[in-house]
Amino acid sequence: MKKTIKDFDIENKRVIIRCDFNVPLKDGVITDDTRIVKSLQTINYALKHKAKIILMSHLGRIKKEEDKIKNNLNVVATRLSHLLNKKVTFINETRGKELEQAIFNMNDGDIILMQNTRYEDLDGKKESNCDMELAKYWASLGDIFINDAFGTLHRAHASNVGISTYLPSGIGLLIEQELNALSYLFDPERPFTIILGGAKVSDKIGLIENLLPKCDKILIGGGMAFTFLKAEGYNIGNSLLDEEGLEFCKIILKDYPNKIILPVDIMCHNEYKDEKGVAKDITDLNDDDIGLDIGPKTINIFKNNLIKTKSVLWNGPLGVYEFKNYVEGTNSILKYLTTLDGKTVLGGGDIVAAATACKVTDKIYHISTGGGATLEYLEGKELPGLNNIKEK
Predict the structure, then answer these.
(1) What residues act catalytically?
(2) What is the pTM of this model?
(3) Residue among 75, 23, 34, 77 nearest 54 (CA)
(4) What is the pLDDT of residue 38?
(5) In the CATH scheme, what is the code of domain 5-173?
(6) Which residues lie below 8 Å from residue 174, measured CB to CB, with a gap of 6+?
């Protein structure tokens, strides 16, 4: 196991903690603060041990000047202050005299959150391309670096890989928990069932290839189900089709015919909009039908395949979850899983947001804060954000 924050003497030290505060916003308001809440354990540990805490995070993508306004981390500082019941000083810059002076004047137990690291992307993508001059500057602001941003472990950025090149480094308590919980899925209690939703098959080929031989069943919904159904020869109407993943679907349906469970009915509408649809068997779709959720028969089939399962990995919702008329499939299965005697791991922002809205998060074994990082870890890929962190 990698060194963690607990392996360092952090009292009186300036500790840079790279968090993942990449939360969803609507009209400048945080709609799901799960990632902020998950970061609290590491921050509180640093507070308890009298560190000077310097927080860093990205928020959204910064491609043009206007993006800075909607992706300003000030809203996170406000929320964090409320959750910690302690002032979090927000510094509206990623480098410069104001930031340096604020850090120089810190007392033990003070917390600073600097502005969105991706503001640096406006000038040659210095953050995202791991500019080492920027990383060295950021490292000069602290004594110890703790990476607790699981969601960016699969990226080599200046604020994770870069800083860890120059400072004694460890992982935070969130990443430690993530790695322990996800590692369980490499040798899970059986039966082991995977539930996959979301849009594209091609995004999850590595995950499917790595875990399909190890699991007992894969239940497939969401937009990606239609690529599998098309591979089976069904008319999917105007439903989402991932041409890039079509051939892959044909191959694994042939190689694993008894493991893959596809929808037998879907909720359809002839427009992509949030209006009540009708349930149709997959044999009855018209050319103008758009599938937007799994149907009631499929919900029952999925439940029957989950009755005896002991381990579940779920990535991606089973319908167009942002439409209130098409949440039934996802919500029904989420609620059903909480009644079973098994461990469920949710991986990926969309399914985590769904579980939060469905109010079942307290009954789930593990909710991963990562999207791409979760998938790449489960695919067996190396995570760059861990490379410079030494083993205990």
Answers:
(1) 35, 200, 349, 372
(2) 0.86
(3) 77
(4) 92
(5) 3.40.50.1260
(6) 38, 39, 41, 42, 148, 150, 369
